[in-house]
Amino acid sequence: MSDAQVESAGPLAGKRIMVTRARSQVWELVEKIEGLGGEAYAFPLLKMVAPEDKRHLDEAIAQLGKFDWLIFTSVNGVRFFLERMNEIGVGIDAIKGQVAAVGPKTAAVLNDEGLEVAVIPSDYVAEGLLTSLHDRLSPGQRVLLPRADIARKALPQELAALGLEVTEVDVYHTVIDGKQAPEAARRLRDKEIDGILFTSSSTVTHFVQAMAPFAGTGWLDQVQIACIGPITAETARQNGLTVHVTATEYTVEGLLEALIDNLGGKDNGTNI
């Protein structure tokens, strides 16, 4: 059986899915969709760039030994933080406190770099991380949060309310990359897309911004919108989008499983 025949038999056979992740991450999801028999259209909306002003980040890195907790809420946060440590000549052994990660992929990147992760929540969102950390935190402890410039404030606010001293530093900025917007809009207008995947609230807001010059009445009526979790889904609704699919496990794999349940055919045994 040819590769094309194998793909055509997958649970997403005949479905055309738009993927709106960051340019550095979009191809992982594209490959998974194609492996499930679907046709993926990559519409990378985001670019991650290092902040121009790194003074606060460098100050935090210089004081790493004073933090009781180092909490990472994304793979990108890990990568940009460790890259900056390397750039200014600070080694991993400078991290003295315990490390927490919002999910297994973030934890895996930390493990690959030789860091032991003390806490991974069962719900891969900031609220789940807070619940998992709660009994291990003590008032007065110092917490470092290396994050994106647009990260939600729920986690630092809740940590501060528990009496912890929280330091937030921007390790990367998320900027819109709308070069493909006209082509993406044409595909949507010509009904060439069956579903759109959103993997974060920022992909939703950037999608809406990029599509604003092209959007029309009923332009998404034929499209199933799938979100990686309830926070992303709520952002989509707040931006006027109808959400058809929300993953119950807040991972790429969970999102694809939910998409198959709602949009694809019967599972033919293909592993996600």
TrEMBL record:
Domain of life, per lineage: Bacteria
InterPro entries per record: 4pyrrol_syn_uPrphyn_synt_sf (IPR036108), 4pyrrol_synth_uPrphyn_synth (IPR003754), UROS/Hem4 (IPR039793)
This protein's UniProt keywords: Lyase, Porphyrin biosynthesis
Tetrapyrrole biosynthesis uroporphyrinogen III synthase domain mapped to chain residues: 28-257
Keyword Repeat included in the entry's annotation: no
EC number per UniProt: 4.2.1.75
Record bears the keyword Transmembrane helix: no
Catalysed reaction equations from the record: hydroxymethylbilane = uroporphyrinogen III + H2O
Pathway: Porphyrin-containing compound metabolism; protoporphyrin-IX biosynthesis; coproporphyrinogen-III from 5-aminolevulinate: step 3/4
Gene3D superfamilies on file: 3.40.50.10090
Function: Catalyzes cyclization of the linear tetrapyrrole, hydroxymethylbilane, to the macrocyclic uroporphyrinogen III.
Record-stated family: Belongs to the uroporphyrinogen-III synthase family.
Protein name: Uroporphyrinogen-III synthase
Organism: Brevibacillus choshinensis
Classification of source organism: Bacteria, Bacillati, Bacillota, Bacilli, Bacillales
